[in-house]
Design the sequence.
């Protein structure tokens, strides 16, 4: 009986054409991030559960992939009376790139005071797979640690905006809000502080479940109708109002609240910085933006587009997280691009040009030519920079050329006994049909010039 | 209490300078493989245990990282009377790149008949960590499926040799042997066929434990002294003998054995092909080479170097493995480079040149300059291709320049109020001390020309 050949649920194989598109996007992201002075790090796929647990909320903890103990450790665990999940594992798979960064910063005190790092790696979540939702997927993060300056916020927003623009995608807006402002808005709506986290979770779904959905959720979470209406009035931006107007509206609604005033001033300053950046014309203040994760402490961001329901990425300031590992506080701000979603949008909008993948030429040969002569010809062309595949066997020429056509290559180089004797190739363009007898080097030059 | 900040045992964080070296090697490998017409694939980190188990021998199965069941599935498993490893998991982490390739080939019948793929991804093994030995490490594989032609063997050997030579490393030799030849040698030594696998395992350790060690192992495995001596005499190459002489010696020792004669003829033909390839001068016939894994069926290879004890990579022909997934047989041959070991050798031999990493310039600014003006200057230089970091705060200039020096950057660009007013920068070379006032564009040009 043959074994199943499919990848597990939510996991994917990437074949060459798709991988070429993914690499093209990764390269664009890398080059853009490096222009901003970000440097790369990578962290291990497996982390201690003590690093991961308690950082992503209860739901996040549930979605962690855990590594089963082995040998003696497993045997000992199974001997005890009441065996549970926590006895069977102390390692888990990376769930995001922010918590590992916080651990890494704490573990490497020799790193520069302002550490601008980017990281592009897969993460794993045992979520229900769906359209654009996988159990192994890639994240592309930029973070700046060590500074509370708003320049840090402006730089990560500018870098992310430049990535999207460079990929040819301009129909997006970075929504901006501030966690302190949100807190003040919740307070101003008369909602008790101990319901803040619950309220944020409900408001975070506005995009997905709409106004009525949020009303219902808030009711279920014990927020009364008056409070709910007050909050929804506060966080909804009136039509036709510009950034200055919206900031003014919020300022008036929360006048007298010093914390709110400070947060609004920060948002105003950030807008001014973004006007000088690549995010200019691609941002808007959105007091309803909540972001799910608990660790944000200042400005928060999310990329929205009418071409995609949901967010294409997000981030914000989290001044407390590194301190959970280090003991002393280190401020930080970051932005993460949802790689699979971005790919989906680029594909749907037809923003991938022709991406080369595979050999430039296939060498077809007859069985009266020594294989060593074929290898010599191939390596000679490779030395000139051509990607060469050798047809490994010698069936009839038509079959060899048929194979070359089937893999979409433009050129074939034919070697019979007479060509081999003279160290030349009969180079044929499969698109135009033109054919010339050329030295290995001239054949290479012709192929590279198209 | 702060949480532990170290990665788990056998796992590593990669900081920018080390990651830059790793990427340089990966890029060299990719570019070389692509010149040979190989195309990339990637497979998921998590595979079904049914895919992995029984392919790597008992020891391999023991070293798999298994994923713990979750929720209901875990609860149900823990309810049963005798709970064991197999009840708690049906997923495991990728252990090598060959078995996933075999699954992928079987799962994608639309792939070209001759599929030349390369794959560079991490694998995980719960091995005891040691020098150059990790629990998460990278493999770089090339494989050609669909052909029994020796051109396939020659192409993978040539590609791997070219990788090493391109990296500046020439002190290596690809040892060649043939599984059928080994089998005939074992038979000729009088060892029973059902001890073949055991014998191969012992011989495979020759490199590590020496002749005496192998003698002892063989004795423990029930091979008598006469047989052991006969085998060791057969597989050891006499001093000062060339490839032709060694093949002749083996042919004579096994004369009359048709299978041996065919295998020796194949090795002879392969040597001829390698003479026309990049592996020319970098191979030798070695009848003592065994390779641990059970699935090889034809020629086998291993990279050895006097600069490294142990193997830097290896491979061979495995015509049966894909059939385990597909039901019908598809021949295949592959070669895998041990990435971490290669890196270790390159480092020890000083073969890494200066690899750039990090920004070209840090912008230092005074607090009477608007942050938006600084961002504008940065983005202008970035548009010309310069990697620019903005110092995010405005302490005294000496402190800002000190930071730039500490991260090893060559240039700083200083912006005071007068520079900002005229949209210029005071560009200073930290190595030479020279300083010029330049427009953003001229500063960019100066930096890029060094």
Sequence:
């Amino acid at each position: 009986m043959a074994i199943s050949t499919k990848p597990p649920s939510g996991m994917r194989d990437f074949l060459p054409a798709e991988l070429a598109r993914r690499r093209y996007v990764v390269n664009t992201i890398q080059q853009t991030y490096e222009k901003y002075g970000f440097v790369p790090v990578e962290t291990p796929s497996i982390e201690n559960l003590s690093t991961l647990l308690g950082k992503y909320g209860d739901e996040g903890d549930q979605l962690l992939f855990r590594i089963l103990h082995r040998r003696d450790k497993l045997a000992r665990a199974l001997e005890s009376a009441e065996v549970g999940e926590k006895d069977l594992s102390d390692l888990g798979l990376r769930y995001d790139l922010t918590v590992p960064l916080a651990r890494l910063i704490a573990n490497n005190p020799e790193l520069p005071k302002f550490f601008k790092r980017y990281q592009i790696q897969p993460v794993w979540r045992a979520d229900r797979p769906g359209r654009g939702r996988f159990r192994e997927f890639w994240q592309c993060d930029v973070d700046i640690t060590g500074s509370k300056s708003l320049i840090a916020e402006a730089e990560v927003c500018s870098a992310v905006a430049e990535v999207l623009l460079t990929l040819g995608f301009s129909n997006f807006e970075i929504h901006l809000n501030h966690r302190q402002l949100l807190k003040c808005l919740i307070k101003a709506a008369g909602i008790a502080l101990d319901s803040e986290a619950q309220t944020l979770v409900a408001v975070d779904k506005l995009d997905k479940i709409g106004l009525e959905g949020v009303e219902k959720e808030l009711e279920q979470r014990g927020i009364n109708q008056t409070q709910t209406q007050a909050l929804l009035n506060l966080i909804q931006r009136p039509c036709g109002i510009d950034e200055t107007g919206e900031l003014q509206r919020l300022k008036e609604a929360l006048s007298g609240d010093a914390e709110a005033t400070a947060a609004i001033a920060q948002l105003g300053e950030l807008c001014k910085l973004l006007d000088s950046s690549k995010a200019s014309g691609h941002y808007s203040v959105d007091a309803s933006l909540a972001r799910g994760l608990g660790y944000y402490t200042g400005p928060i961001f999310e990329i929205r587009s009418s071409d995609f329901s949901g967010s294409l990425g997000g981030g914000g300031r989290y001044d407390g997280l590194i301190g959970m590992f280090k003991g002393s506080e280190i401020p930080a701000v970051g932005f993460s691009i949802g790689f699979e979603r971005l790919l989906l949008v680029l594909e749907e909008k037809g923003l991938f040009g022709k991406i080369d993948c595979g050999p430039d030429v296939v060498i077809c040969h007859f069985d009266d030519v020594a294989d060593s002569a074929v290898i010599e010809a191939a390596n000679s062309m490779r030395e000139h920079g051509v990607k060469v595949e050798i047809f490994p066997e010698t069936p009839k020429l038509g079959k060899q050329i048929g194979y070359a056509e089937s893999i979409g290559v433009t050129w074939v180089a034919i070697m019979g006994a007479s060509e081999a004797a003279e160290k030349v190739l009969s180079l044929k363009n499969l698109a135009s049909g033109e054919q010339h007898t050329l030295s290995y080097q001239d054949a290479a030059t012709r192929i590279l010039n198209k």
Summary: Chain A has a mean pLDDT of 94. The first helix of chain A runs from residue 16 to 35.
